[in-house]
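pasting for ref
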Amino acid sequence: MKFSFYIYISNINTRIVANIEKIAVKKNWLIYIMFYCSVVSLFFAFPSFDAWDASSGRLHSFLLQCESITEFWKENKISNVNYRITVPLLVGIIGGGHTTSIIIRFIVGILLFGLCAKIIYDYTKDRTSAILFSITLALTNPGATSFCEHRGMFDGIAIFLVMLPFYFKNHFLIIFTILLAFFTDERTLVSTGFLLTHGMLNSEKGLGIIRRIFNNYNLSILTGLIIYIFIRYQINVAYSLGLQEVNQLKYGWKFLNQFNNVPVAIWTGLEGFWIVILLNIILLYKNQNFFSGLIFISTIIFLIIMGNSVGDTSRSMLYLFPAVIVGMKQISKKIPNNETRNILILCLIISFIFPSYWVGAKSSIWWQYPMPIQIIRWTFLL
């Protein structure tokens, strides 16, 4: 019998779906998927506990913020963490310092898998597609960051918060969560473009362009943005704070200096999920959603440029993830569930093949080691 690559791939596809459907039929399937995705994520990208150093720069700054935000502002006039106050305030209230922040990050990382599965299920009405999506997320950096980031930065929490407006219907909850997201990391400000695109694409048909832009959902997002700007301005005036990125411009534009690392950084942000982004752009064009498509593509380009104008390039590219949710919503409207499953299986396989690499600055590339390698490293090398 001759070997058929097509049949071989089809068999793999069938086996993947069959195994996932065993989870999908369970009553508490969301709990199961949060558990399995957490295991998958930790297996392929396990945190380097030995690298946690409370005296290191950013982590040290975070711990100082937990003690007193206002004292930190008085002592640090130019810092890019001055406005990242959501987690320090929460940890300051709870207590426990770094240990508490680790627990919060892990809990939010687990909840992110369940939240995304629920959102995709609401779009597709197909549990298998929702599970495929969350497993793919577990294999990519947006899903791994909550478990692996140990430098006092909370991108996983910021991504979780900016994802909640895709799920919430209550306008006050949307305003509250997006405001928390902005104060967790300012990169979420750019992700606002994806939320506005989502609002436009899901507004009532037949509305004019102005009413589509300023629909109730988008007004909630814009209200949160205005409140953030107002609060940030008041803090800035009261404590005379500056921005580290603005201060660094006198040394030249980092984007051009580290351009050689930009392609890898872009890829590490989403990996296999880039297929969803490309399909969504095609669907937006075919359905003549030109203005929504313009905002969507412009937000991606702007985030790529600005995100690669700082040292933490892979970190910045994580904030492209909301674009995947926008894409899945459009795919669920236009493409049958069986084809959606095939698309997600392809995303999963690509993300499985590529290891969890992170890049930064001009030439830094590092691998977030899988659990087996971490165990071997700790056993024999430390």
